[in-house]
Write a structure and sequence with these properties.
103 residues, mainly beta, globular, single chain
Length: 103
């Protein structure tokens, strides 16, 4: 089971594919996960927005500075988190804490 827990850089100004962020930080090519946690520990940081390929500050689910978002999947009957369909958007480049656990 692959795991990753580290601060990762999110490039600002355009949606960033979660699987690309993971690959750039040493996570294996298998993008199917059981758990993702995205946390903005720096309370002075910009919000991060989650969504599809056109996500931005007006359309995404907001994770504000100091907050986190956790997704869990059961792995049963195809219930997984697919990092190839999830995008993150931030106005300017910054780090977030990212924790993932694969199948």
């Amino acid at each position: 089971m692959a795991k990753l827990q580290k601060n990762v850089e999110i490039t600002g100004g355009s949606p960033q594919l979660l699987s690309s962020i993971l690959l750039a930080n040493g996570y294996p090519a298998n993008a199917s996960m059981m758990l993702t946690e995205k946390c903005i520990r720096n309370t002075g940081a910009n919000s991060v927005y989650l969504g599809g390929s056109s996500v931005d500050a007006s359309t995404g689910y907001e994770i504000a500075a100091g907050d986190s978002d956790t997704e869990r999947a059961s792995g049963v009957g195809g219930d997984i988190i697919d990092a190839t369909t999830e995008y993150l958007f931030v106005a300017s480049t910054q780090n977030i804490s990212l924790r993932v656990r694969g199948l």
